[in-house]
Write a structure and sequence with these properties.
By secondary structure, this protein is of the alpha/beta class. Helices cover about 45% and strands about 15% of the residues. Strand 8 (about 135) and strand 9 form a beta hairpin.
């Protein structure tokens, strides 16, 4: 459903007596959230949480394991204890960082129609990310492979309602020191959407930057002047930023690329058991990480973020799509609005397969993000087992929901012709509107057409094989992988990229830094 261009409503062919099929216009590429942001706290309680987070940073401190990061904070006036690696960050440093961080961030896609503007009010969806396993009805659950990564990137490319490329699964059949070559080539070859880079040390980050830069025909200055990719930075809750994450914040800031800061604070485990306590911790960690980007390069593009939910207190396992997850998302939105920055939230599911539980948890979590006013919603399609698996079928069934949400982002027309007085006058009391002129002019394009939903009656459904939604999703992803075209690719650029990868592979690749 990649947004067909409208060719206009074709006229009935002479002599046929039939109306040619009209194309329905869809544009899911630049969505704006149509819902007023919700609140769970009063303004004074939001201020109290912010003040408490500043107190955590200044009085309790945050451990930062990268020496260079501690030096940047010390230079800005923070108190640093080298023996314990603790950094005590004053409110003035945080205030200056929030003042210099841009409130609107543009990420360039491989084609201009894929450019994204990240700012409050915008709405961007990503499928599930970072799973070690993939699953589908044909091949079952398995460790993620390079082929799974390629297929899932192609599926993400196909749907306009999925705006950015995350690392859907880890291709575990590719060695870590070479994996970034495989994933980057796949993203650039099979998609023109904004690519993701893991922050796994300077050598890998710099090589990923070089691959994007050269593939898109940019100079070094042109690459660094705008954002062309992004990373996600997870703090090590509670109150710690490890070496790769701190390194990533600095490297991406200095290269002008986007860091989406995301503390992962599970209530009752890595964070206090209350929503307010968990959000206080998450807010403090996010502010510290955002400050580091601005100390590395004032004005560096950065997004506020959170992933706060609760755990099952019987087992300690993460839970998602819970009432507490919803409340935490809305609370995080209030904190994000205080910063003014674009921000990231997440849905998700702890279900083990794509059943009713999985659908309920993902949709409830999604509505938490929507009501919170999230800019980027991650794990919005395909995510299972609390992030251990991405499901091909669930990716499709979740996209159905995302496309319906995207329809809600469109204007609901209410011109005189939409009010339909002519149709009301044409149809007598007790009649029907099927044959009304107003209906005949619009019926081909009036309504959203389901991706896999089946609106037939029971008898017709049974005659057609009695397939449930999951089985229909299998048919859908298979047809996309078999038939859907990919983006237009510059063959010379692809050859240059392959030559670069061959050379770097011969030189030994780039192992991740820890």
């Amino acid at each position: 459903m990649s947004g067909p261009e409208n060719e206009g409503r074709r006229r009935t062919r002479k002599g046929t007596g039939r109306r040619a099929k009209a194309a329905r216009v869809t544009d899911y590429r630049r969505l704006r959230n149509p819902f007023p942001p919700a609140s769970v706290w009063s303004d004074d309680r939001v201020a109290a949480v912010h003040t408490a987070a500043l107190d955590v940073l200044e009085r309790l401190g945050i451990r930062i394991l990268l020496p260079e990061a501690r030096r940047l904070f010390a230079k800005a006036g923070a108190k640093v204890d080298e023996a314990s690696q603790m950094v005590f960050v004053g409110a003035d440093i945080i205030s200056a960082a929030l003042a210099s961080a841009p409130k609107s961030v543009t990420i360039r896609g491989g084609a201009r129609q894929r450019d994204l503007v990240l700012e409050q009010g915008a709405l961007v969806f990503q499928p599930g990310a970072g799973a070690p396993h993939a699953t589908d009805r044909i091949r079952g659950r398995r460790p993620g492979t390079g082929e799974d990564f390629r297929e899932l990137i192609r599926l993400t490319q196909h749907f306009d309602v999925l705006h950015m490329l995350p690392p859907l699964v880890e291709p575990q059949d590719v060695p870590m020191h070479l994996r970034h070559y495989m994933t980057m080539q796949t993203m650039l070859q099979h998609s023109d959407k904004a690519p993701f880079i893991y922050a796994r040390g300077t050598p890998q980050s710099e090589q990923n930057f070089e691959m994007i830069r050269d593939f898109r025909g940019l100079s070094e200055d042109e690459f660094r002047a705008e954002s062309h990719c992004y990373t996600i930075i997870n703090t090590n809750s509670p109150r710690q930023i490890d070496v790769p994450m701190a390194r990533g914040l600095i490297d991406f800031a200095r290269a002008g690329q986007v860091s989406i800061v995301t503390p992962f604070t599970l209530m009752g485990a890595m964070a206090p058991i209350t929503v307010a306590g968990a959000i206080t911790l998450s807010h403090a960690e996010a502010l510290a990480a955002i400050a580091l980007t601005q100390l590395a390069r004032p004005g560096a593009p950065v997004c506020y973020g959170t992933f706060t939910s609760n755990v099952d207190m019987k087992s300690g396992a993460p839970a998602f799509g819970t009432p507490e997850h919803f409340q935490a998302s809305v609370a995080a939105g209030q904190m994000a609005r205080l910063t003014g920055l674009p921000w990231r939230c997440a849905t998700g599911s702890a279900a083990n397969l794509g059943d009713a539980q999985a659908a309920n948890e993902t949709q409830f979590g999604l509505w938490g993000c929507l009501m919170a006013g999230s800019t980027v919603v991650i794990h919005a399609a395909g995510w299972l087992e609390g992030g251990l698996t991405v499901s091909y079928e669930k990716l499709i069934t979740d996209v159905e929901v995302l496309q319906m949400v995207a329809e809600l982002c469109s204007e609901t027309p209410c011109q005189d012709s939409d009010i339909a007085l002519d149709a009301l006058a044409e149809v007598a009391p007790g009649g029907h509107f099927f044959g009304a002129a107003h209906t005949m002019e619009r019926y081909q394009t009036a309504f959203y057409e389901p991706l896999i939903g089946d609106w037939s009656n029971f008898g017709t459904w049974e005659e057609n094989g009695a397939l449930d939604a999951t089985a229909r999703a299998t048919d859908k992803w298979q047809s996309i992988l078999n038939d859907a075209p990919g983006p237009d690719v510059d063959r010379d650029a692809l050859c240059r990229l392959q030559d670069y990868i061959h050379q770097k592979t011969e030189e030994g690749g780039a192992p991740p830094e820890s």
